[in-house]
Write a structure and sequence with these properties.
It contains one helix and eleven strands, in the order βββββββββαββ. The chain has 122 residues and is mainly beta. The chain is globular.
Length: 122
């Protein structure tokens, strides 16, 4: 099982980025998939998840700005991030878990990738 993130980069505040995650070994019919982030010196912060029924959950930090979407046919998971702020700067990780709250609330997923860096400048 593997999760490989891509799509990070540097943007100015107010800009957008779309993160991608290539998923293998986990199917959305069985697992929840999602995203969390971690900035230097800070704890992990859950962002968004989608469960086996297609229901999405968002943390307050990304609600209204971030959108999670899977493309099952391509085994991909995306995180569209709009209206980015400097405080969104962090390493972003794609994650798999049994339950969606393991990603967004508890941030204790079964598996996560190597991460992709997002830097937002003011």
């Amino acid at each position: 099982a593997q999760l490989v993130e891509s799509g990070g980069g540097s943007v100015q505040a107010g800009g957008s980025l779309r993160l991608s995650c290539a998923v293998s070994g986990y199917t959305t019919s069985t697992y929840s998939l999602g995203w969390f982030r971690q900035a230097p010196g800070k704890e992990r912060e859950g962002l968004a998840s989608i469960d086996s029924d297609g229901r999405t959950t968002y943390a307050d930090s990304g609600k209204g700005r971030f959108t999670i979407s899977p493309v099952e046919a391509e085994n991909m998971l995306y995180l569209q991030m709009d209206r980015l702020k400097p405080e969104d700067s962090a390493m972003y990780y794609c994650a798999a878990a049994v339950y969606p709250w393991d990603i967004v609330q508890l941030v204790t997923p079964l598996k996560w990738g190597q991460g992709t860096q997002v830097t937002v400048s003011s």
